[in-house]
Every structure is written in structure tokens, then in C-alpha cells.
Amino acid sequence: MTIWTASDLFEGEDSPGMASVRQVNQRFLGQIEVQVRYFHWDEYDIAIREAVSSLSLPDIFVAPKGHHFQSFLPQSLLYPVNEIVSERWISQFDDSEFAVRFNIVDGKLYAWPGIGPELGVVLYVNKTVLQEAGMDSERVPGTWEELVQISETIRQGSDGTKYGLLIGGGEPGQVRQMLQGIVAGIEPAVASGFDYRSGAYAFEGAAWKQALRIVAELSERSVLHPSSYTISEDEARSLFMMNHSAFLLADARMAWKLELEGGAATTGIGPMPTSDGSKPVFAYSPAYSTNDYMVSAMTRHPQQVGLVIEELFSQELYYESLLRHGAALTPFQALNDRTELYPSDMFTELAEFHNHLLRRRPEPAIVNAELVQLFKHISSLDEPSFIQPGIAHVLQKLFNRTENDVDFTLRSLNEKLNEQLGVYVTRLRNQGEDISMEDLRFPYWNPHEDYADAEYENRRKGIKNH
């Protein structure tokens, strides 16, 4: 049986995913062989589209970026997982974080999380570069201005051969993630681009414009490595580990790769800088993950697939392996609390960032389960399928300045998003679906606090949360 994924947790034989697969293959030796095909994300989206067109989806596959299991339901492409796994396996997941509210439609479970809550972007520190510049290697800049000052010292001391900051700006998704991280330090409620307080998109607001001004200033003051506009995140990581820069803005899940690969640099980690030195706050929903796995309706061996799911995606194997590798947190808080499994100080710090900087946002599907009909058509509010080119591509053009009119571009993007969202909601209402734009509004949401279960009931009653 086959698994397709673009998650780097399955990249390479030393990855936590492949280490777990080897154990599963040994367990089912002579009966079942699990074969994993790993793709980079840009290749993966194309491969999945082609597999859908040719009706040749693999047995198990991860959702493409910007898509969730709802995207595959209208075409009857998914096999109900609850029909091939035990209740014991399903019950290992905490209902409040997983299946009951988010991944079950009409009583059928269609997806499960490959990892736990994701922080997004963090600041990696090259202690070697700082030491060579005669600076405090444990110093993590808390503000953008502090980062600029450190960068200028490094540039001057290296005769211009080393820079302050690297990012993988050649990938639209990385640009968007970086900008979301900056916005999270300005106005966290709009960092995804959709403001759940107003129930509308907010790209034309002050926070997104300020984030782009910060990036422009980093470029103007020669903080950004010149390659940052064209290289991938992997290429940025390589340059960073070869001591080309003091800092790297990248995915929080890159930490395990830095420690696995080693190199000429000694590294550390810190949260995203902000303008005033406060800590950024990141909103998340357990309903949406970049690592949700699904079973294809085209599988010819559903019962065997069920056996592999129970064996591979168990707390004792794959999920514990995530912690032991320092790769990611899991969906299970009790497992995440086992700090003796943490392999390094960097991962311990990263886990602390997750605990202190992540806040659960409102989930409209809890207010009205009928919204699943909307998400079947648009995929998600954060990355709707009805806008082309996608949000990330538009933001990348602003980042690399192939599009210079920031105000016009953000306003145009915002208007298109809000208009099309309204069109889809109206169309579904006319088809008899009991949904409205009001279902998307949470006017009393405080992004600095978890949106708790009781607050959904308060919202229904019109009570402001305190």
C-alpha cells in the first residue's frame, strides 16, 4: 500500500515518519508493505490533481496546501476512516481538538491530524556568526530595530559578505507565512487575512500594510540577504548553516532539520521580533492543519489500510517519534507533556513558544455545522480556492516588488475575496442551505486568549465574553 505526502516529517530515512514506517513494515513483514512517496509541496499539488483526474489516488495521502478533506467530498474521493479502524484508535484523540467537531461529516470520519498545533514562523539564530562578530551569541532580537542594528554590525564587520537575515522568499507560501508572522505581532486577529471578529477579509487594513513596510525597510537597510527573493526555504536553510547570515525566518518545524543536518553553525531559536518588543500571538484552529491525512475511496485494500493506520499513527509510534526527533508537537497534550522525550534545548524552547504564543481561534463550523457545505466549495477561509492567483502569490509579488502599488493591490485582493465569499454564501442559501455571513462573525473574540467552549454559547446569546 502507498502513502503520498509532502510533509518533511517523511523526508529521508532519518525522519520520524520513515523511522515509524520501517517498524510497521517489520511488524507486517510478509503481509503488508508500506511504500511512502515524498514530494516537495509545489510538486505535490500537481501530483494530487493528476491522481484525481486519472482516478489513481494513493491509499493514504496528506491534504495539499490550502485544501482540507472537505475539498474531496463532493467528488466522493474519500473512504470513511471510521469504517476501517477501531473505536479505540479514534478515541485516542481528544474530542475538543479533533474528530467530533471538525473531521466528521454525517457521522463519518474522513481525516486525522499528522501533527499537533503549529506555531508558524520563528526566528533562528546563528550563534557562530554572532560570536565571530564579537556579539552576544545568546542575544535574540526582540524588536525589528534591534535586528537591524545587529545586522548592520555584522555587515560592517564582514566587509559585506554576511547579512542579518535570510528567508526562503522564492516560495509564495513562505512569503505569506513570514508576513503572517509579522502581522501576528501587530494585530493577531487579522494575521490569517480573515478577521473573525467582523467576518470579513482584512488585507487592506493597517496591519498588513505595516508588515509590508517592515519588510521593505529590511531590504532598504541591507538586512535581507539578496538571495532571499528567489531561493526556497531549504536553500535559505543551507546558506544559514554555512554562516551567510545571523538570522533565518522559517517554519518552526525546521528546527529538527537544523539539528539533524548540523553544519558549520551553532544555532538557537527565538520568537518573531515585533516593533515594540512584545511577543507575537498566533491564532490556530485544530480544524485545519497542513498535515491532515485521508484514505482514498479508490483503495483496493481498505481493511489492510485500517491496520496500517492503527499501527503507524499511534501515540506509541509515529506521534511519540515526532517528539523524540524534536520535529513537532502532537495532537495529544498528555504526550506533549512528557518532556523527557524532548531531544534538545531548542525543541524545549519551541514547545514553550507553542504553549505561550498559540491561541485557539473561533471555529465557525461549531456555530453552524451546515458550513461544511461552504467549505466543500471554497476549501477554507484562510486559503479559499475561488481566488486565482492565490493569496500567497499576490503577497509574493508585493514582497519581491514585481507589484509596487501596495495599497491598490491589497484593496483589490480584499474586495475580490469578500465579494466572492458573499457570492458563495448567497448561492448556497438559494439552494436551501441554512448558512449566512453572520455565522462567520465572532465580534467579541479576544485573540490573546483561547476561544473556549463556553464562548460559543455566549455568542449565541449575544453575551460579551470577559
Automatic annotation (TrEMBL):
Q: What is this protein called?
A: ABC transporter substrate-binding protein
PANTHER family membership: ARABINOSE-BINDING PROTEIN-RELATED, DIACETYLCHITOBIOSE BINDING PROTEIN DASA
- Name the domain of life: Bacteria
InterPro entries linked: Bact_solute-bd_prot1, SBP
